[in-house]
Amino acid sequence: MRVLPLILGFCLASGAMGEGLPMRERVEVTQTAGTTAGLQGWIAGFRGRALTAGISAAVFDAAMTDLGLLPDVVRRDRNQNEFTKTIWDYLDTATSEGRVAGGKKALAKHGDLLERIEAAYGVDKEVVVAIWGLESAYGAVRGDVRTIEALATLAHDGRRGAFFEAQLLAALQILQSGDTTADRMVGSWAGAMGHTQFMPTSYHSFAVDFTGDGRRNIWDDDPADALASTAAYLAKNGWTKGQLWGLEVRLPDGFDYGETGERVKRTVADWQALGVAPWDGGTLPDDGLASVLLPGGAKGAVFLIFSNFHVIETYNTADAYVIAVGHLADRIKGGAPVQAAWPREYRALTLPERIEMQDRLGGAGFDPGGVDGKIGPLTVAAVRAFQRSVGLVPDGYPSTDILTRLR
What we know:
- The protein is mainly alpha-helical.
- Among the domains are: 11-236, no CATH class; 351-406, no CATH class.
- The protein is built from 17 helices and eight strands.
- It has helices spanning 33-52, 57-64, 71-79, 87-94, 97-109, 111-121, 125-136, 147-157, 161-177, 200-206, 224-236, 268-273, 307-315, 319-333, 351-363, 377-389, 400-406, and strands at residues 11-13, 84-86, 145-146, 186-187, 246-250, 277-278, 291-293, 302-305.
- The chain has a four-stranded antiparallel sheet with strand order 6-5-8-7. Strands 1-2 form a two-stranded antiparallel ribbon.
- The longest helix is centred in the N-terminal third of the chain and has 20 residues, at 33-52.
- Residues 2-34 have low confidence and may be disordered.
């Protein structure tokens, strides 16, 4: 599971996991004597803290000897929000026909295992498979960066030193428990590991030994423990079996776009009374309180989302990721592709453009809640207020057109 923040709402950092996405590129290991020496000095200081936390000297010295600093890991951590994708570009890859076919094949191949996992944890097997598909292309691309070396590099770098030091300590605890060895503990540049990319602290909280062999093994070819651990994670975060994550809907003419967003929750009966209807007709499922989400603005697909959406969100906070998991699961079940057109004439804003938009919104009297390049609820509300002020549809979508109008 990844706990690194991604751009929320309308665009996803290009570092998102998945087949064909940039984070899956092999990290080139380049070193210099000076930077490696600096890392070794940091390790010497960290040793005492690790031993105080219960790591044995033998485990520490075996895992932390002869590590080199990985400059590309530092570069990726510092630049992960620099380039973005629109949700439609992301979904084109994340829920491609090839990935759907791979999910169906994985579901058939591991059907008995997935049925047992679903029975044990009450999490729909297609959702577990969808996360597996997005995180490692169904186990084909689990990452090849040494986890201890990557985490030591990031902890030493200092930008998020406390966070990565905690992850490194948790990784050493995994080695001390005997669940795996340092040479097998490999994964992404950011320290996420195994078939479904658990960070070390999440491993400690949620990983399970589903095979009963005495080890919680998420790294090797057998995906049983990893898939069961993912189901355990979702179950502990409140998954409701059989409930939809969301579905594509149509909005009536004259719909109040101020009623959209995750913070606006209504009963299904209320949404029906307002004219919200399933894209393919019929009645809305009564799966509890729901929200209307516009990930591509008023010109794109519209989703009615339920509580299971927010459970997937605990795995990765980016709306695009959550929609991809839910939609891929639906496609694996035999559901249709997204039906509405996307506003493909728009491109994603770059980080400098997002910062400029927030700065200009604030200067025009529309408070975005800060100037950090992250498109969160306050920025969306500021965009919506600006749109109303100039007679545009107030969908809150931060497009290039909005930035142009603000200049």
